[in-house]
Amino acid sequence: MNHSHRPASLKDHPASGRISIRNVTKIYDPDGANVLALDNCSLEIEAGEFCVIVGPSGCGKTTLLNAIAGFHDISSGQIDLDGQPLCTANRMAEPGADRIVVFQQGALFPWYTVLENIVYGPEVQGKLSKAEARQQAEALLVQMGLQGIHHCYPHELSGGMKRRVEIARAMMNNPKVLLMDEPYRGMDALTKTVMHKHLLDVYDASKKTVFFITHDLEEAIFLGDRVYVMTTRPGKIKKVIHVDIPRPRDFRILSSGHYRKLKLEAIEAVHEEAKKAFEAGERELA
Amino acid sequence: MTNKPNHYFLGINLIKLRKQIFSKTTSRGIIAVIVAVILWEICSRFKVPIIGMIPPPSAVIKALGALLVDTFYWESWVVSFKRVFLGFIVAQIVGIPLGLAMGIGRHFRDLTFPIIEIFRPIPPLAWVPTAVIFWPTPEMSITFVTFLGAFFTLVLNIMGGVKNVDIRYVRAAKSLGSSNGDIFWRIILPATFPSLFTGMTVGMGITWEVVVAAEMIASRSGLGFLTWRSYIAGDYPVIVIGMISIGVAGYLSSALIRFLGRRLTPWLKII
Fold first, then answer.
1. Which of B256, B133, B153, B148 is nearest to B210 (CA)?
2. Cα dihedral A251→A255→A256→A257 (10° resolution)
3. Nearest residue on chain B to A180, judged by CA atoms?
4. pLDDT at position B270, please?
5. Is B269 on the interface with A (CB under 8 A)?
6. Chain A residues within an 8 Å CB radius of B1
């Protein structure tokens, strides 16, 4: 891919977006029943790394994401962003435009048009004038292949289109980290491949750090630099898979032997945990 | 899709409007009304029990002819509309901020909700005697009772609307760098609009119910009084006209609210 005329709004954040998660524990305490969601979970995410987290349901993936985003606190440990403490046991992270979340069911504001959604960040932060924000947003929409839908309301768009607009809204803020919580869940396989291609194009052009949660192992290996398999609750990192498939990637790698080998490795690790989670669930019910 | 095509007028899709007006649904509706009127006439002529007691449409139409040139009839409309809208508007002015505050502030909700819940089940008409005592004019007491009719529904709908705002929107807004003010004005307020309009539509219906009854008890004007006076005078066709007038007035008021609601929530799918 030719990076020489990289678009202004998809520009680099050189060497920023390094996330260091150290010994993070999270105990949920609803009604006095201590539920250990994360147990001494540690991982280092390099600046510009595409990091994928997989694991059985309820293993604390979203808890980790929420801690980074600043929606939840943690019980012990520490998370740093670029060497600066982001959150500790006593201090919840402040939500901010340097770490933008793309939500599972999407969170475009239904009462704003596509354009109003995209300029929302710069507008409330007072970073850009209305005209500047609008101009940049329109340029960004064109870059991302989303021209002609400025004045649509989200409900007029397809699921895949909405997700792309949401990524555009995030990129408009030039964040250090993109936090994605199963953004393509429930989409059909065909739409998913289109979404993956689009996300990888954005990633290749911007090299933002991506923290991507999914259940879909095929997606995990196809997108990620490293895939972290989490254990069943209490969650910690069970296995790291280095995906050394060169970028830019396209769907043809899905049929390569190396890809299939990595996928098998991931399946084995996840399957083991899923089985444990299932058995634990049966015990709870019994 | 970028610009609205030219079959829009005042934001109304004219093609859709034409289709709605000349649709099968509309024609069936018209047929239903005509058939009902004919049946009513027949029942009246043949003195069918119960329905036969009501004056026939022919008599009602005759009476209507006389009434349409009677200023008292039109004054009744104006007076009732004034009462309804005054009570309704005051209910919005007091109820919207209160409902929002109750939805947002937990402490405030804990303090105010029990009081609202105790007063809510009291039918507005049960307030008429008290209202007549503590408001200086009968006009004010009737407006107060109409106010109550719209007030409680509105407050509870807005409070519920605020509580149901999807946490994802609030989180996304925070993540995008919003201040608390931004979250209120740009997220919570628009997200509450649909509940607000539900509350307004229901409230408007109750307001008409209340104003008519209050006029019968405590007033010498308005559509409710017109109906009641006709009963006292034994002028049965005018009772029917009074009733139908109230129905039409209520329908027009609700239609106005629905129209405003659609204008202010263009992002909702119009079915």
1. B148
2. 150
3. B172
4. 53
5. yes
6. 148-149, 151-152, 156
Which residues 77-96 of A have a C-beta within 8 angstroms of B?
95-96
Nearest CA to A103 among A263, A212, A3? Answer: A212
Identify whether the C-beta of residue A253 lies closer than 8 Å to the C-beta of residue A245: yes
Q: Which of these ranges, A114-128, A170-184, A263-277, has the smallest mean pLDDT? A: A263-277
SS3 annotation, B58-112: HHHHHHHHHHHCCHHHHHHHHHHHHHHHHHHHHHHHHHHHHHHHHHHCHHHHHHH
Contact B143, B90 (CB under 8 A): yes
B102 touches chain A (CB under 8 A): no
% of chain B beyond a pLDDT of 70: 96
CATH 2.60.120.200 correct for A10-98+178-285: no
SS3 B246: helix
Q: Enumerate the domain spans of chain A.
A: 10-98+178-285, 110-174
Chain B residues touching A111 at Cβ < 8 A: 190-191, 193, 265, 267
Q: Is B179 on the interface with A (CB under 8 A)?
A: yes
What would the two tokens of residue B14 be? Answer: 């004219």
pLDDT at A59: 80
- Say whether A124 and B187 touch across the interface (CB within 8 A): no
pTM exceeding the 0.90 threshold for the entire prediction? no
Q: What is the pLDDT of residue B175?
A: 92
The beta-carbon neighbor of A95 closest among B1, B175, B186 is B175
**Chain A residues with CB-CB distance to B168 below 8 A:** 103, 105, 107
Lowest mean pLDDT among A24-38, A95-109, A259-273, B215-229: A24-38
Label residue A249 left, alpha or beta by phi (over 0 means left) and psi (-120 to 50 means alpha). Answer: beta
What are the residues whose beta carbons fall under 8 Å from the beta carbon of B254, sequence distance 6 or more? B201, B204, B205
Q: Do A96 and B177 touch (CB under 8 A)?
A: yes
- Residue that has been written with the tokens 């993956």 in this structure: A196
- State whether A71 and B186 contact (CB < 8 Å): no
- Tens of pLDDT along B129-163? 899 899 999 899 999 999 999 999 999 999 999 99
Beta strands per DSSP E along chain A: 19-28, 35-45, 50-54, 76-81, 84-88, 99-102, 177-181, 209-214, 226-230, 237-242
Is the CB of residue A71 less than 8 Å away from at least one CB of chain B? yes
In B, minimum Cα distance to A116 occurs at B186
Q: Does A1 touch chain B (CB under 8 A)?
A: no
* Record: fold of B59-264: MetI-like fold (1.10.3720)
